[in-house]
From TrEMBL, chains A, B:
CDD domains, per the entry: Trans_IPPS_HT
One of the protein's GO biological processes: isoprenoid biosynthetic process
GO molecular function terms listed in the Swiss-Prot or TrEMBL record: metal ion binding; prenyltransferase activity
Organism of derivation: Streptomyces liliifuscus
Protein name according to UniProt: Polyprenyl synthetase family protein
Keywords, sorted A to Z: Magnesium, Metal-binding, Transferase
Segments for region (Disordered): 1-43
Family: Belongs to the FPP/GGPP synthase family.
Residue ranges, compositional bias (Polar residues): 1-12
């Protein structure tokens, strides 16, 4: 998952030195709406408070696993080193549980009632990370070797399976009246995540002329949008919101997730490697069919033909600059930025439908801005 | 999972030509209690009726999956060929859903209220089969290539992930008052199944002198006993039984599962290949640390030393007879048969605690006999 790699390899609180500071249009900026603090301090505070309330629940769930599975999971979450000694912990920004709690609050509920649901969403997220890393043969996550690289494929798959089970267990044991509806929604989301991962792995095996923009957008929605949407929907359910508001919150999260993925893909090509934590152009060198690349490939321009030519063979030294230029000249970058702004606008429309009061929507807005306004 | 391979590679309704017919003691026979019909007809009828009510729910759940995942799952269940054309279907005996329904009935509940729970248990079972086959590199299940052999590792893992999610979704959407307790119990069982599979894969990497009988029994309980116990416990929950009866039913299923595994392991060594569907001695040739083998290895006899010597190197032509004899002379076969009878006796004690009326316990007794009285 491109989304996740970059997300977790960045500092949790990147200093903003993005397009806005350079006078460029902000793809994910809130058009004319209420803004989070421009330096992301507000989102940082929300994330920190969310972690403080959700981490104990999450850790308690992981600690409940039997010995060997617990060890793999504790390693994956960054709470232990591979040898079982305690580690400082770097389990990512945990944006999803923060979205659950912010959604509860936005709809007038009590955040503390939804801590288990927030932990369940984070468990599902980490189950998919464990499995995706095995399938994608990714060797690094959060600056450390991935679980399969340390413990082997079988153990990483089993640890992932257990985290999925723990997520459902948390909700099944939660006496909150919304817990069953939340569990059904989360389970359905898992199926969508799996379908997205299937499409992703299948797409990587296909030729550069053989992928449509609709397909790659649908894949990004399933892989990234679905769980962000589900997190927000679960928050709405726990606030006792009606069906319409729950769906609006889901759509808000989905569209924000897509905006996030678009920007993440742009960063993957044009981002500053010192900020992204990945070598410049790594996605292009791996011939990944990211969103700007597929937009470029399907643009019908001469640059598209050149890009397809480059993508038909594995990366050769010196290709990178030509590839970057081809994507840019074929309009891949502009398309992605316009799309991201469009998705973000749609996202905010959905939010304002369910939460018209900007003050109440503040937490969700800050988080949406945080994930979509990153250094480029 | 040794259990599962043999189970599913046998005809669903094997003619009984077992130890009883040969005048030998029946390891899994009901000692002095009410007997199922000696030819297994009663169990066959129970299994058939269970399938008739659970299959539509199971199939509906699988059909709800998005395209590519649905295709893999339909193939795995034997409902489609690899090319997507319809198949006659051979998805195993489906003993677990039958146990759920029989347990409901034994405790005075209405079977039809527990059809979703029964389907959920079968989905979990099949999720573990899909994943275990990937990890164990097993290439055949139910006389067909395994899902990973046809669709690749990633797709088999994703299909398994989706089946786990579907199981939890079925329970989360079930309005029955016991569904949350059942979901929590099933999730906890999944963790136990994963721990069992972890122990199994880890144990296969260890030397023949490095495995204790307690370990291998605990592993068999986690891999085989846990889900049979969970199936029975879910039935009790759906019948509205109290905590004590739920635990008794769990213990009944667990012990029956262990008896089943012991007999399955014996069949794996001394069984008739035309019945087991596996070449004679396949487990020994693969140097599997099955229950009779570990009993033999830890017997402290001279045959144990010989067996350990044989197990330290990969199988060589002509070894098989010596290996079989060593297990037998070291007491592995006798131990397994005595253990199986002992487990079955304990199993029935647990059952009679919760269901003292033999008439009410009839269905569960027939199923327990069916799984433990197989051709040897």
């Amino acid at each position: 998952m491109g989304e996740l790699m970059t997300e977790t390899q960045q500092s949790p609180l990147p200093a903003v030195e993005g397009p806005e500071a350079r006078g460029e249009p902000v793809p994910g900026g809130v058009p004319g709406g209420r803004r989070g603090s421009p330096d992301g301090q507000e989102a940082a505070g929300i994330l920190e408070r969310s972690r403080a309330s959700v981490d104990p629940e999450l850790r308690r769930a992981v600690e409940s696993l039997p010995g060997p599975l617990r060890r793999i999971a504790l390693y994956h979450f960054g709470w232990e080193h591979a040898d079982g000694s305690p580690a400082a912990g770097n389990s990512g920004k945990a944006i999803r549980p923060a979205l659950v709690l912010a959604a509860v609050r936005a709809l007038g509920g009590q955040q503390e009632t939804a801590v288990r649901a927030a932990a369940a969403v984070e468990l599902v997220h980490n189950f998919t990370l464990l499995h995706d890393d095995v399938m994608d043969r990714d060797t690094t996550r959060r600056h450390r070797p991935t679980a399969w690289a340390v413990f082997g494929d079988a153990d990483a798959v089993l640890a992932g399976d257990s985290l999925q089970a723990l997520a459902h267990q948390l909700l099944a044991e939660d006496p909150h009246p919304a817990s069953s509806a939340a569990a059904a929604r989360l389970a359905s989301c898992v199926v969508e995540l799996c379908a997205g991962q299937h499409t992703d792995t299948a797409m990587e095996r296909r030729g550069p002329d053989d992928v449509t923009l609709d397909e790659v957008l649908a894949m990004a929605e399933a892989k990234t949008g679905a769980l962000l949407g589900c997190a927000c929907a679960l928050g709405a359910l726990y606030a006792g919101a009606g069906e319409e508001d729950v769906e609006a919150l889901d759509a808000f999260g989905r569209e924000a997730g897509l905006a996030f993925q678009l920007i993440d893909d742009v960063i993957g090509i044009w981002g500053d490697p010192s900020r992204t934590g990945k070598p410049a152009g790594a996605d292009l060198m791996a011939r990944k069919k990211s969103l700007p690349v597929v937009a470029a490939l399907t643009s019908g321009t001469s640059a598209a033909a050149e890009l397809a030519e480059l993508y038909r063979v594995p990366y050769r030294d010196g290709d990178l600059e030509r590839t970057v230029l081809a994507v840019e000249r074929a309009g891949g970058r502009d398309w992605a930025q316009v799309q991201a702004a469009d998705r973000m606008a749609r996202s905010l429309q959905h939010l304002s439908r369910a939460v018209p009061d900007p003050e109440a929507a503040g937490g969700l807005l800050s988080l949406a801005e945080f994930v979509t306004r990153r250094s480029m």
